[in-house]
Amino acid sequence: MYIILVYDVGEKRVGKVLKLCRKYVNWIQNSVFEGEITEVKLKELIYRAKGIMDEEVDSLIIFSSRDHQWLNKQIVGHERSGLDHIL
């Protein structure tokens, strides 16, 4: 499955959530990630994120698709982290 993940968490938790998400998907820009992930790994990511987050004020939003080919991606301006280097 292909996901785009966006988070908005409190300042004290940003570093921990960033580090966690980078273990699973590619960091695109501040609080935005994308990449291929299995359903099991996605559930694991969500479970671990809930352990860091304060669900009363923080949010984690995940857009999913069967394949990245079903999404059009347009970049305007500088692309912070290109995926060209991934094999």
Short descriptors:
alpha+beta, Alpha-Beta Plaits, 2 helices
CATH first level:
Alpha Beta
Tally of alpha and pi helices: 2
Mean pLDDT: 87
Number of strands: 4
- Summing up helix and strand content along with how strands pair, one would put the structural category as alpha+beta
CATH topology value: Alpha-Beta Plaits
What features would you describe in this structure?
There is one protein chain. The chain is of the alpha+beta class and 87 residues long. The protein has one domain: Alpha-Beta Plaits (2-Layer Sandwich), CATH 3.30.70. 26% of the residues lie in helices and 26% in strands. It has two helices and four strands. A four-stranded antiparallel sheet has the order 2-3-1-4, covered by helices on one side. Helix 1 packs antiparallel against helix 2. The longest helix is centred in the middle third of the chain and has 14 residues. The radius of gyration is 13 Å and the shape is globular. The two termini are 17 Å apart.
